[in-house]
User: Fold this.
Amino acid sequence: LEVNRIRDALEAAEKASRIDNQNAEVFLLLGNARQELGMAKPSIKAYERYLKLAPSGRYATEVKQVIKGMKDGL
Assistant:
């Protein structure tokens, strides 16, 4: 994501989520990549999975705000 290779990041995150579906950081990355590609509903789903796995994680507050903003835009 940091070098603007969004599709590569998405592919890697999808693969990682299949390998380890308990890793919160994977779902954060998956949500970010999907959001960058304009995939609102799948992005929200990934972010919600992040919050389920890490309800008080480092990015939880920010992710909650992002989800709210995205849902308001749907």
